[in-house]
Every structure is written in C-alpha cells, then in structure tokens.
Amino acid sequence: MQQIFNFIFKNSHRLLFLLLLGVSLVLTIQAHSYHRSKIITSANFFTGGIYERINSVSEYLNLKVQNEELAKENARLKSIIFNTKDTASIAKIDTIKGVNKADIIVSKVIHNSYNVYENYLTINSGEAAGVKPDMGVVNSSGIIGIVDKTSKNYATIISILNVKSQINAKIKKSNHFGSLVWNGKSTGFVQLIDVPRLASVRKGDTIVTGGQSVIFPENIGIGTIDKIYTDDKTNYYTLNIKLFNDMTNLGHVYIIKSKDREEIQNLEKREDE
C-alpha cells in the first residue's frame, strides 16, 4: 500500500494532466457532434474489426459441425434416391415370367457376412410377412439366395456366396444346364459346373436360372461367362461367372412365393414311395 502512495505522490503531476486531458476530451466530444461522430466511427472500426476476426474464428471452429450436418443431409438425400430407385425396380421384377406382383414379398438385408465361406444374409421380414424356408430371394439385378430359417419378423438367407449353395442354372442362348456353386475365392464370381462339352459357350454369354426347381422361376439373371475351363478327364466345362449383383452391397430384396411348390413336392413324394 505504501508503494502505491509513493507512486501517486511521485507522479501526481502526470496523473493530474491525464485526468484533465480525459475530462477535456469528454467535454469536447459532448459539445461538438463532429468530434463525437469521428470518435464513435473510429471505435466502431476498431471493435468491428475485432468482432469480424472473432466471428471468423468462430466460423472456422464450427466448420466441423456444419460439415457433419451436411454429410448427414447428403446421406439422407442419397437414401431417398436409392429407396426410390429400389421401389421403382419392383416393376421390373413383376415382369419376369412366372412371377406375379402378389407373389412377391419386399424386404431389406440387415446383415451380410460375405467375407466368410458359409455366407448367410439376414432380412427384416419373417413368418408374419409370409416368408417360408426354401423361397427364392432376388433383387432387380438377379438372384441373391434361398431362405433358410425364419422367425416371426426375420429370416436368414443362404447366399449364393456360400460354399454349400447349389442352384440350377443354364446358358441362356443354348439352354444347356449346370449347377451354380461358389468356390469361396471371390465375392464377384461364382462357378457353373457340370456344363456338357457339347454346349456352345463363349465369354460374355449370359447365365440365368434354369427353372428346373420350385424355388426360382426360369430366366432370372445371374451373370455372364468370364472364363471357360475344360477338364480333359470329363465331358464337362466349368464356367467362371461374373455376377450381375454386387453381393457386398445389398439393400432391398424380393422374396418369391411359389404357389405350386407344395403341390409339386407332394407329387414328387408320391413318386418316391
């Protein structure tokens, strides 16, 4: 405290001068509008510059939040577009021979374990929607798999990317049949085995469902021939098939009801007796 008093005493003249200068400035500003406007303008320029810089810093710090909001909005819009596209593609499924609109259950893949040898999909439709085991599952690009097990609201699908999967298929242009299997190597390719050597096959030929079962109607797309392998010890080709579907990115799917399934199965059981 003593030091403060000493400072004031030693600098009393200077402090008095500054006080009087301040009082005179206030009186001058209040008495003259021109000086007042100049001071206010200068103050506004100074504080405005500070506020602008503060606002710039604030905007920069908020960019992350804004970007996240934009990303969410972008994802929402994409979802609307994709869902609209999927909805529109139902009409394509309805035009496939042997499939009526009433025989289709629309569902969505909620789990896909495509990175394993025995791949199963999970969909968000089950017994309550009419889904039963051994129903065929397709989308607008081609076949997906076969219903395996069901609960009230969900079902598991044996994917065509499953080493245990075996589906009847054929070369579209020649009607030569084979069995569609997966060797577990690539998610983009399956194999059509037991194709007779008499068949005319070329790279790029289309492979479709054969229609020799009650699961899939005939001529649903599968893929195209990528490579042709010949086994000299047998009379058959093994064809490497590039899938129409991207099996790692599945959304809406369509479960196909077969109204003749039970009748055909009962008839076949009688023949076996």
Describe the structure using short key phrases.
single chain, 273 residues, alpha+beta, Thrombin, subunit H, six-stranded antiparallel β-barrel, 12 strands
What does this structure look like?
With 273 residues, this protein is α+β, with helices and mostly antiparallel strands. It has a domain of 158 residues: Rod shape-determining protein MreC, domain 1 (Thrombin, subunit H, Beta Barrel), CATH 2.40.10.340. The protein has 4 helices and 12 strands, in the order αααββββββββββββα. The strands form 2 sheets. Strands 1-2-5-4-3-12 form a 6-stranded antiparallel barrel. A 6-stranded antiparallel β-barrel has the order 6-7-8-11-10-9. It is elongated, with a radius of gyration of 38 Å. About 9% of the residues have low confidence.
Characterize this entry briefly.
The protein is α+β, with helices and mostly antiparallel strands. Helix content is 38%, strand content 29%.
How are helices and strands ordered from N to C? HHHEEEEEEEEEEEEH
Query: Remind me, CATH topology of the domain at 101-258?
Result: Thrombin, subunit H
From the N-terminal CA to the C-terminal CA, the straight-line distance is 116 Å
The count of DSSP E runs of length 2 or more, i.e. the number of strands, is 12
Could you give the order of strands across the largest sheet?
Answer: 1-2-5-4-3-12
Q: Strand pairing plus helix content: what structural class? A: alpha+beta
Residue share in helix = 25-40%
CATH architecture of the domain at 101-258, please?
Beta Barrel
Unreliable sequence segments: 43-48, 78-96
What is the CATH class name of the domain at 101-258? Mainly Beta
- Shape descriptor reads elongated
Largest sheet: 6 strands, antiparallel, barrel
Mean pLDDT score: 76
Name the beta content range.
25-35%
Number of helices: 4
What is the radius of gyration?
38 Å
Provide the CATH superfamily of the domain at 101-258.
Rod shape-determining protein MreC, domain 1
